[in-house]
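Format notes (please read before filing issues)

Several people have asked whether sequences and structure tokens are stored in separate files. They are not. Every record keeps both together, in the order shown below: the sequence lines, then the token lines. Line labels are part of the format and must not be stripped during preprocessing.
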Amino acid sequence: MAAQGARKRRARRDYLKRALSTGLLAGEAKDCAEQLLLVNAMREARDD
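Then the structure lines:
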């Protein structure tokens, strides 16, 4: 079950990174995506 959750988190992270790098997001959506990536990175670092 934990492995499935980790896969989903990685998939969301990869999707956000791809959307940001290709310019699909702008304005407030871009800011929110960047915040989500930062929060997720901090959570992963804490869990490791």
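For reference, the curators noted about this record: The chain has one domain: 2-47. The chain has a mean pLDDT of 89.
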